[in-house]
Design goal:
globular; 27 helices; alpha+beta; 21% strand; single chain
Length: 847
Amino acid sequence: MARYNAKESERHWQRVWDERALFVTPAQSDKPKSYVLEMFPYPSGRIHVGHTRNYTMGDVIARFRRAQGYNVLHPMGWDAFGLPAENAARDKGVSPRDWTYENIAAMRAQLKMMGLSIDWSREFATCDPAYYHQQQKLFLDFYKAGFVYRGEADVNWDPVDMTVLANEQVIDGRGWRSGAIVERRKLSQWFFKITDFSEELLTALDTLERWPEKVRLMQKNWIGRSEGLRFQFALSDGGKLDVFTTRPDTLFGASFVALSPEHPLTQELAQKDKMLAAFIVECRKTGTAEAEIEKAEKLGHDTGLTATHPFDPNWKLKVMVANFVLMGYGTGAIFGCPAHDQRDLDFARKYGLVVTPVVVPSDADAETFSVGTEAYTGPGKLANSQFLNGMTVEQAKAEVAARLEKAGTGERTVNYRLRDWLVSRQRPWGCPIPMVHCATCGVVPVPEGALPVLLPEKINFAVRGNPLDADLDWKTSVCPSCGEAAVRDTDTLDTFADSSWYFVRFTDPASDTPVNKKAADYWLPVDQYVGGIEHAILHLLYARFFTRAMNKLGLVAVPEPFAGLFTQGMVCHETYKDGEGNWVSPDDMEKRDGKAFLRSSGAEVEIGPSEKMSKSKKNVIAPEQIIEVYGADTIRWFMLSDTPPERDIEWTDVGAEGCWRFVQRVWRLAGEAENLAPIGAAPKAEDEASKNLRQAAHKAIAAVTEDLNALRFNRAVAQIYMLANAISDGDKADAAARREAIEALVLLAAPMMPHLAESCWAALGHKSLTAETPWPKHDPNLLKTDTVTIAVQVNGKRRGEVTVAQGADNKTVEAAALAEEGVVRALAGAAPKKVIVVPNRIVNIVA
């Protein structure tokens, strides 16, 4: 039989699938539904081999479910708004729209080369006016329901680019593009009221049983529910100050009270205190990111006020303004207990404040225990705390709360780390916010009949700041309420909003409303979502918020969007550098005798560690290169082989060649068709060889089915290798048993190597397609065996194994074990001291 021609075969079967519209999903079906979705990509230019792993895994699930008899929805789209398109427009003078759609065309072609069973009829990009038209309607629905509001917020402001920066765009306190020192400004912004959902977003995580535990934990920590005490300090000016603390047990260790620079009291005091006003300006030079605030030097300003300790009227605490206190958490005011909080300790040491340990280790002497440069945050008993002395931390918390509640100055309360989602972006390549600003009427929604608010055809990136704000023709509008001149809102929505409901839109992307409820209720939730761990917090949390908000509006029936979540590992590759330290692409070098050399000059290249494939380090492989030589099925098989799917995998040429050899091996097995029994012939398995082969085939069917249901792709691959070996070894089996086993091999491999499977199926004489063939079923009777294989250990080391009859008595098993060649060598003629037989499991021999 001729060698398998992957390139020709893959083009042929992709054309056949398209002609038969096999993967176009019917709107309704009597079959059970299965919605399989990979996180949709950003069209940045080209995909590399590293990108193909999650698409391959998603496609295997989709093909497997389809073969199992499900009505499968497996769509694809593009997360198309955002900064990369703006950067290209600004740097290359191209249209962000043209750049985006050109990339989409290129990436679509690459994905189609992979043979993905995608319903391309549902494809859309979030920058399509048809999509963001519906998103604007959804925004207005949220606004009417109170899920959207406008408020003031501290933002990172780049004074050169004149734009707000996300925390991720602030690098060492400077704007990532301009390099200017970032300022903190208070601007009027749009927010989604995600905090209204804090508790249900938290508690519902326990219902997501098919999510990775680490992802659920990351979300729990991000939401950050904390039980604490809100109480009041009496101030020396006669006022009251609310604070929130999770550690009321440490109240007797307080040495200062600190306000956020943005606290209303701070702002009030700054009007009469020029030095405080200057201090606030300095604080605003630090961005809003918590990580940046944590790293910054702890600075403070003494307001001159004092706060009275709630349990001692003679104990006065300095009231400071501190740069590390955030207005967005709690009340924006804290009491500092330096002995048990590192930030408080750093602050206290800098300003010479008292440090009193009030929680000491249980085995420590409270009289001599002290804190040096590190705060003590461990468990212990209360000390130096009057009526709390000797209590546990939890007892002390309860006692303080009870006393302050009785006094009417405190209340036990719950606080969340989660803040409302600020969605305003001063960038032009995004979904326009459908609001206008009128001098008379204020902020007014754009009427639904006037939607969509389209982006301008041409965007001028030569201006400073947001080009939409500088486009007078575009932003000049009319107030829908009074008819007077008004101005469009020139902010666009955070692109996370685009990806927070796209999975709903896929259920009917042609609907003239944001959601076709009938379609959404049929398909949702997504049964299996596949994507990277880097999206474990924000994307997934925002998508959960959107779904809950839509559920409350009656748009969807489910509160949670993704029933199952799988986070695949990264694809890694060696890195290379030339003599000047520049990254070198694998395309520009060749390997000889374990060394690497530049093709152009022959100069040796340094081989670096294997790292995640990235364009910045040039260690990427284009899928077209591999497909040209080995075919897409080789890439697919590689991505599923050996390594557990949740772990990183390293791409190697040797590994790809090994996968290609297996492709050829399966093709050769299918080439036996003329020596096999006719299609449908019933195998009898009367001889030992046929019986063994049939058992191997049915064990493989059962095992691969179980492994794919559990997303254990690497184990499924291993089972298929074992079946191929059994077929090769079972050449004495009858023709019907061999056909059954080879056909099982092809059908089991079909979700993973679909093009090869179609070619093999045709070679075996079938007129149908594997893509239309039901998943094979195993015969439970063929899984039963009369024998069992038992490991044998000598002094704890494995020395061999024996195969005996099921339920054999201990004497028979012991005799077989002692006769095993490895055991005989280990004993070296000596009699064993003891033989312990664990029936049907293991034999332990003590020499």
